[in-house]
Write a structure and sequence with these properties.
This protein is of the alpha/beta class. The protein folds into two domains: about 5-305, HUPs (Rossmann fold, 3-Layer(aba) Sandwich); about 335-480, Orthogonal Bundle (Isoleucyl-tRNA Synthetase, Domain 1), CATH 1.10.730. It is about 45% helix and about 15% strand. It contains 17 helices and 15 strands. It has helices at about 20-35, 55-60, 65-85, 95-110, 165-175, 185-195, 225-230, 230-235, 240-250, 260-275, 305-325, 335-365, 380-395, 400-420, 430-450, 455-465, 475-480, and strands spanning about 5-10, 40-50, 90-95, 115-125, 130-135, 150-160, 180, 200, 205, 220, 250-255, 280-285, 290, 295, 330-335. A six-stranded parallel sheet has the order 3-2-1-11-12-7, sandwiched between helices. Strands 5-4-6-8 form a four-stranded antiparallel sheet, covered by helices on one side. 5'-O-[(L-methionyl)-sulphamoyl]adenosine (MSP) binds near residues 9 and 295.
């Protein structure tokens, strides 16, 4: 069975979950669900990043120990993901012993292979980014280009990773694997960073002790980023179960925001190569969700909590509108108004109305017993196109384009009803044919829409009188026109997506 290993970044525990974090996690969840429906063996990982100065300072401000701070916030992320029905198979915390073992082993290997050396570092450091910046990267008045806050001058005696040794191998990898980083603009961005020249990077700290100790030198802990990246290897057995790691690692897909591209797409593959791991991950990078043109962040006071959105739109309404409205790649403006109009147009109107209308007419014209679709239906070709485009969209990790293609089929079925007006016709074969086609279109939309809206589409499935859940089906078998069985009695029910008014 094909394997598919998908990850989100692990989130810092100084911040509460907001819809920016939810965007990555939801996309990863939907992609994981899609691959399960393809029949693949899926492992889906998310978690929290708990070491480093940023967390230590947040803990101090809150009068907590760093571990107490991490315990409290990590739970908030777990709760947020539960409330969004995230189907992760594991939740990793970097403070767990399994992770310490993996970090020490992986970096010890880099050290033994001659890629880590001692030296002194001096530079401008942003605590919020947990990153050093060169002078030309700084903003006005020596501020962090992302957080717009003053950077700190740091001088440290520490260990350096010989990133410069990997320039050629990284360039070859990104030049020869056109799908290594998608969308392609981000592959070019990573190549550009490498072509500017790679300097060795400082990977340990003596100024703090909240981190994983460097195994060969007691006074140092690893810098948080080099500990954090290794979480992806820890969770599939690195350092504890070699056979498991070898099975899963070649199937790794990292989903992440563009803010952390350099760490993921340049530093991390170099670390893997330095440790003798030749299989490099595949990357899927997205832009920022912007609120009034600004990135959502703790420092901008513009964060929107996923819980508030679930209260407005329901879990699946929120999941759908977020996935459908913001394609995976460019920056995208988030607004309540556009979420509302997406919900009302696609869910309340297009899908919800269709389901309600069809089941009502089946009640009136067919004695409540659903007819079967036509094999040679005028909708069949359009369905085949919608299915192919849906599959292509998800294959590219583009939930928005997959869902767009699926919803085209729902609109086709609505048009079929508007053109033929079966409610005006006498009961008989013509009405049966139209309704059978509409029911089949609904079945296919519920099937293909399930990764975005697992519960709502399961409810729709039941309303179509179908057994089981759409997520239990295999795409290759079930996404083919003509399978709606007909002959089933349709249960009655309330609209699945009641129309919402602006609040
Ligand atoms: N802890 C590091 C990641 C380590 S992974 C080995 C980190 N954490 S974070 O909490 O700041 O989360 C960053 C990720 O959250 C981004 O890469 C992105 O996936 C998501 N987002 C945070 N804000 C976002 C937006 N405003 N818009 C979209 N995604 C955003 O960096």
């Amino acid at each position: 069975m094909d394997r598919f290993y998908v990850t989100t970044p692990i989130y810092y525990v100084n911040d509460e979950p907001h819809i920016g974090h939810a965007f990555t996690t939801l996309n990863a969840d939907a992609v994981a669900r899609w691959h399960r429906m393809l029949g693949e063996d899926v492992f889906f990982l998310t978690g929290t990043d708990e070491h480093g100065l940023k967390i230590q300072r947040a803990a101090e401000e809150n009068g907590l120990s760093p571990l107490e701070q991490a315990d409290r916030t990590s739970v908030r992320f777990k709760e947020a993901w539960r409330s969004l029905n995230i189907s992760n198979d594991d939740f990793i915390r970097t403070t767990e012993p399994r992770h310490h073992v993996a970090v020490q082993q992986l970096l010890q290997r880099c050290y033994d292979n001659g890629y880590i050396e001692r030296g002194t570092y001096e530079g401008s450091y942003c605590v919020s980014c947990e990153a050093y910046y060169t002078d030309d990267e700084l903003g006005e008045d020596r501020t962090c280009p992302i957080h717009k806050r003053p950077v700190e001058h740091m001088v440290e005696d520490n260990y350096f990773f010989k990133l410069s040794a990997f320039e050629d191998r990284l360039t070859d990898w990104l030049t020869n694997s056109p799908d290594a980083i998608t969308p392609d603009g981000y592959r070019k961005e990573a190549l550009g960073l490498i072509r500017q020249g790679l300097e060795d990077i400082s990977i340990s700290r003596t100024s703090i002790d909240w981190g994983v100790p460097v195994p060969w030198d007691d006074g140092h802990v690893f810098y948080v980023w080099y500990d954090a990246l290794i979480n992806y290897a820890t969770a599939v057995g690195f350092g504890s179960d070699d056979a498991r790691f070898e099975q899963w690692w070649p199937a790794t897909h990292h989903m992440l925001g563009k803010d952390i591209l350099r760490f993921h797409c340049v530093y991390w593959p170099a670390m893997l190569l330095a440790a003798g791991i030749e299989d490099l991950p595949t990357y899927h990078v997205h832009g920022f969700l912007l609120v009034s043109g600004e990135k959502m962040s703790k420092t901008s006071f513009n964060k929107i909590s996923p819980t508030a959105m679930v209260e407005e739109f329901g879990v699946d309404g929120f999941r759908y509108a977020l996935l459908r409205d913001h394609s995976f790649g460019p920056d995208s403006d988030f607004s309540y108004e556009s979420m509302l109009s997406r919900y009302n147009s696609d869910l309340a109107n297009t899908f919800g109305n269709l389901l309600q209308r069809v089941t009502t007419i089946v009640g009136k014209k067919c004695g409540g017993v659903a007819p079967a679709p036509r094999v040679d239906s005028p909708v069949a070709d359009k369905a085949a196109t919608a299915i192919a485009e849906t599959i292509a969209g998800w294959a590219k990790f583009q939930a928005a384009s997959g869902l767009d293609a699926t919803w085209r089929l729902a609109r086709e079925a609505n048009e079929l009803l508007s053109e033929t007006e079966p409610w005006k016709l006498e009961p008989g074969p013509e009405v049966d044919a139209i309704l059978g086609d509409a029911l089949e279109a609904l079945r296919i939309v519920a099937l293909l829409g399930a990764p975005a809206m697992p519960e709502a589409m399961a409810a729709a499935w039941a309303r179509l009188g179908l057994p089981g859940r759409p997520e239990e089906q295999r795409i290759a078998d079930a996404a083919v026109w003509g399978q709606y069985p007909g002959g089933v009695t349709l249960p009655e029910g309330e609209p699945l997506f009641p129309r919402l008014k602006a609040t």
